[in-house]
Amino acid sequence: MDFNFTAEQEMLRDSVARYFGDHYAFPQRQAVIRSAGGWRPGFWRGLADDVGILGAPFDEAMGGLGGGAVESMIVMEEIGKALVIEPYLDTVVIGGGLLRRCGTRRASELIGGIIAGEVRLAFAHLEPSSRFDLANVSTSAVQDGGTWRISGLKDAVRSAPFATHLLVNARVSGKSGDRAGLSTFLVAAGASGLSSREYPTVDGSRAADLKFEGAPAELLGPAAQGLDALEAAVDEGVVALCAEAVGVMRRLLADTVEYTKQRRQFDAPIAANQALQHRMVDMYMALEQSISMTYMATLKLDRPALERKRAVSLAKVQVGKAAKFVGQSAIQLHGGMGMTNELAISHYFKRATMIESELGSVDHHAARIEQCDAAA
Amino acid sequence: MQLEFTPEERAFRAEVRTFIADHYPADVRAKQDRGLELGKEDILSWHRIVAKKGWSVPAWPVEYGGTGWSATQRHIWAEELQRADTVPIIAFSTNLVGPVIYTFGTPEQKARFLPRIVAGDDWWCQGYSEPGAGSDLASLQTRAAREGDHYIVNGQKTWTTLAQHADWGFFLVRTDPSARKQAGISFLLIDMKSPGVTVRPIITLDGAHEVNEVWLENVKVPVANRVHEENKGWTCAKMLLAHERSGIALVAHSKVALGRLRKLAAATGQPGCRLADDPIFRRKLTEIDVELTALEYTELRFLAAESAGKAPGVEVSMLKIRGTEIHQRINELTLEALGSHASLRVSRATAHASGPDAVAAPGAVGIADTYFNMRKLSIFGGSNEIQRNILAKAVLGL
């Protein structure tokens, strides 16, 4: 049993933190999210060329750094601390996770593109009535001569406006809710038969509703392979989100402690009040337990499916609840200042709030724990 | 990073598990299974078996009887004891007074007291709290006045756990009434058979006699029984805060209790519509399982840090807070699972009777009293509010 990072992992964290410190100060971020494109291609290029983290979890044979889930966790925590909106989760963690499992030459080629900073992915899985179950897919894929064509609606697709390609979860047979008959497809951004309505998200990123009307697509992996590979890749995404939440919560707590020490009322810092101290201790404990669960789930990603799913859902329940508690408490303890758009704290709160339900709410993951227990 | 214990650690776990299974006294187990009250000899008999094996004071320096185990091994040992639901090794002796004596005691004190603590020959109680000194321990008033080679001690201690069994007690007493609060306190070892010592039971809300008042009236205590210098007692008390805390999170205890609760829920209610199938109750179990798992890995993280050479810090306050809150929640849910059957208060001895004395739900006997009794967890050992004060100051710098 060992929860220490290797020297290489510490170096990775330091270099990522330094790079974000230099290029992602809060005012810079705010300027970028208000800009027309809503992101910075140059920053993404820097992730490839200057810090090299786009290859962090990929094998060296593929041109990656030979890391794994722990490396993703480290990067995602720093992403949370800096409120980075660029699509690392979508591209490297979930997209990369799906591609790694395909094992085809085309998939390796795309991974090479990710590492070089040329391929950016968005994960198109939500549909208007799908909620969180990955089997709830109506979007269909049919073969037309040699070409697969996708039809259907995918909405609230995060990072779609930044993506060069979309990873689309579509059905080749069966009906929505069936575990069988699902495949993962790659659709180029701007493909014919694809229309997109883009909008900003409340937490500073961009998303799009996508309408596929016979859009040409490449099949990744076997046809109708079902859900197993998808679930495994999305579980890696869930744990990465937990790590991002840990980074977000670290800032929420640190800023709150700092603010309550400085803010004076009744001739004393408000931090002198025991009610506030105990609230902050509860925030600290919620954060520490989230860190523990994120480590646990990260280290169990390679376990058999049932054990992996249960571990991942345990973590997401803990982190989802903690994100709500720590976020709400941070705003409460900042008083009126917490309500302003000016302070960074409100932006961390908004990201924490979106993470609560991203890739499955607390209730969804609690139910998944119970399903695992019933199946065990 | 990796989750698995090493092969050596796994072998160690198997060894201690086998030892407990093979040597735990059958008569004590039988009493526990029937929910009967355990006496002094029941508890000491297990201590003596463990002492014979050489494991009664694992965290002590080897020269005084310690095992030289790593922090992880001590954790495994504490966890296995909880898992097997053994009676406790008396913590007041092994975790509290023992370390004070080997750290600050004279060679004579070490020779006289330590071997008897290791062997389980003496039962020690802790004379700290007073009616007016609980969380604010340093405001204690019990007075020890020097008269030649003796102190004359007068005062009242309270909440003294299992003092009715105690052969010896370690007491914080005021030796300099004019000094600043913490500065005038000394640490005395008092023979509980001394004239002037009176132990009076305090019956707690569950009907149990676990705690006591200890009255000290002109008790003559040899100066040779003072540990460390006069007026340095607070140093001894503080040293204990940083001492052995293995098992404080009660993780294995809570796992056992949650496992029992799951079984109870699966057997309660109408066939085909058991409590365990009720989505609302099931969700409560899932939520406490999440919290318990989070605590388990938090404890392991702290343990890993300790194994890597970092001294155990005030983070243990968090283990105490969350561990007790979670354990209390499981007791609460167990009570909830029993519904009206929880109201039974019959003597534990008759609970397992057959014939006309039999009760309909023997499994329910004692559950409510356990729930009542366990409210103590968040109060003793530094209340959870005090633990939050400690974390606020030491971790958050507030």
Can you characterise this structure?
The complex is a heterodimer of chains A (376) and B (398). Chain A contains eleven helices and nine strands. With 376 residues, chain A is of the alpha+beta class. In chain A, the strands form two sheets. In chain A, strands 1, 2, 3, 4, 5, 6 and 7 form a seven-stranded mixed beta sheet that branches. In chain A, strand 8 and strand 9 form a beta hairpin. In chain A, helix 7 packs parallel to helix 9. Chain A is globular, with a radius of gyration of 21 Å. Chain B is α+β, with helices and mostly antiparallel strands and 398 residues long. Chain B has three domains: 83 residues, no CATH class; 108 residues, Beta Barrel (Butyryl-CoA Dehydrogenase, subunit A, domain 2), CATH 2.40.110.10; 144 residues, Butyryl-CoA Dehydrogenase, subunit A, domain 3. Chain B is 45% helix and 15% strand. In chain B, strands 1-4-5-8 form a four-stranded mixed beta sheet. Classes of the chains: A alpha+beta (376), B alpha+beta (398). At the A-B interface, helix 7, helix 8, helix 9 and helix 11 of A face helix 9, helix 10 and helix 13 of B.
Task: Give structural attributes.
heterodimer, A: 376 residues, alpha+beta, Butyryl-Coa Dehydrogenase, subunit A, domain 1, Butyryl-CoA Dehydrogenase, subunit A, domain 2, 7-stranded mixed sheet, two-stranded antiparallel ribbon, 11 helices, 51% helix, B: alpha+beta, Butyryl-CoA Dehydrogenase, subunit A, domain 3, 3 domains, 4-stranded antiparallel sheet, 10 strands
